[in-house]
Amino acid sequence: MSPQEATRGDLFDPDCPTRRLLDRIGTKWTSMAVKVLAEAEPHEVRFAELRRRMPGVSQKMLSTTLQAMTRDGLVARRVEPTVPPRVHYRLTALGLSLEGPLAAVRAWAEEHMAEIDRANERSAAAADGFDGG
Length: 133
Prior knowledge:
Layout: H1 3-7, H2 17-25, H3 28-40, E1 45-46, H4 47-53, H5 59-71, E2 75-80, E3 86-91, H6 93-128
Antiparallel strand pairs: 1-3, 2-3
Helix pairs in contact: 3-6
């Protein structure tokens, strides 16, 4: 059995493929970037437009996110040699294949976040009444 087969499905093993993927794509910024770029498919999106369409993301965080996604083969980057350079992004086929699973997570969240919020409110109310004794 190969090392990859041994760790398959074992989220407690650092080499688990699921764990390694979640470490890479488990941020809100990655999920948002995939959504924006998937909606633009087959067109490219410039950096400034991505930033406008991702409320709250800083220039540094977006740059870091896109660099990681490019390194992982999820995003293709094209630079026009202008002054200043115009940088364009698009999802690769691999990145586009991630949109379906992320859309399923978004749908689950839309269906269940109110329930999770209520549970958090109940927990906070119960903690307020807890005297520690």
